[in-house]
């Protein structure tokens, strides 16, 4: 067991665990077995084998309940096991959430792709069905419908949304500014900006 303890102090935990295993197999006295289980459990705790470490430390305490170091290391092992389980649960939750988001994005992308394809097919179908017309020739029926829509929109100004009203006001402001610049330019005689008369 001394070799195992030396290896443990040199932080060669796996080799120390093998030596404590051998000491456990050779031990005939319950006190020596309890100490070997404690040492093997502590080595396993150091290598990250938390479940096996807890088993060894519990077995050691069953043989010798007075081992304060074994109780202390058991508490450390139980806390570590709880942290590992919580971390695994968080990773699993994040993975599931990522999969859900990925599936939603894929479904949304598939839906958008299908809608785009449907729109393209409709546009192609409409282009094939409608005869080509010159831009100068307008359908009298369409002109009447447009006039009706214009009249309706003028008759029902309260139906305009706030956004449409803001856009209309901005457009009027731009037109007014352009008109002011034009008038000022004419009043100045249309001189070039440099002030020189060429």
Entry summary:
The protein is mainly alpha-helical and 198 residues long. Helices cover 80% and strands 0% of the residues. It has helices at 2-9, 13-26, 30-47, 50-63, 68-129, 140-155, 162-187.
Walk me through the topology.
Elements: H1 2-9, H2 13-26, H3 30-47, H4 50-63, H5 68-129, H6 140-155, H7 162-187
Please tell me about this protein's structure.
By secondary structure, the chain is mostly helical. It has a domain at 2-86: Alpha Horseshoe (Serine Threonine Protein Phosphatase 5, Tetratricopeptide repeat). Helices cover 80% and strands 0% of the residues. The model is unreliable at 132-138 (pLDDT under 50).
Number of beta-strand segments: 0
Q: What is the overall number of helices?
A: 7
Which class do the helix and strand fractions yield? mainly alpha
Q: How far apart, in Å, are the first and last alpha carbons?
A: 109 Å
**Mean pLDDT, rounded to whole units?**
79
CATH class of the domain at 2-86: Mainly Alpha
Enter the CATH topology name of the domain at 2-86: Serine Threonine Protein Phosphatase 5, Tetratricopeptide repeat
- Uncertain residue segments: 132-138
Q: What series of H and E elements makes up the topology? A: HHHHHHH
- Percent in strands: under 5%
* Amount of helix: over 70%
Which short descriptors sum up this protein?
mainly alpha; 198 residues; 80% helix; Serine Threonine Protein Phosphatase 5, Tetratricopeptide repeat
């Amino acid at each position: 067991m001394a070799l195992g303890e030396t290896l443990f102090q040199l932080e060669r935990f796996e080799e120390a665990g093998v030596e404590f295993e051998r000491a456990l197999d050779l031990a005939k006295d319950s006190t020596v077995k309890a100490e070997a289980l404690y040492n093997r459990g502590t080595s396993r705790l150091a290598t990250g084998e938390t479940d096996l470490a807890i088993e060894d430390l519990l077995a050691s305490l069953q043989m010798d309940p007075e081992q304060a170091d074994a109780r202390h290391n058991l508490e450390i092992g139980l806390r570590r096991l709880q942290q590992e389980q919580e971390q695994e649960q968080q990773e699993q939750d994040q993975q599931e959430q990522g999969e859900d988001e990925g599936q939603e994005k894929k479904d949304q992308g598939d839906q958008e792709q299908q809608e785009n394809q449907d729109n393209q097919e409709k546009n192609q179908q409409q282009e094939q069905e409608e005869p080509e017309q010159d831009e100068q020739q307008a359908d009298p029926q369409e002109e009447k419908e447009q006039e009706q829509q214009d009249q309706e929109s003028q008759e029902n100004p309260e139906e305009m949304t706030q956004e449409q009203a803001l856009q209309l006001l901005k457009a009027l402001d731009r037109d007014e500014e352009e008109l002011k610049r034009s008038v000022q330019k004419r009043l100045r005689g249309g001189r070039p900006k440099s002030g020189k008369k060429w």
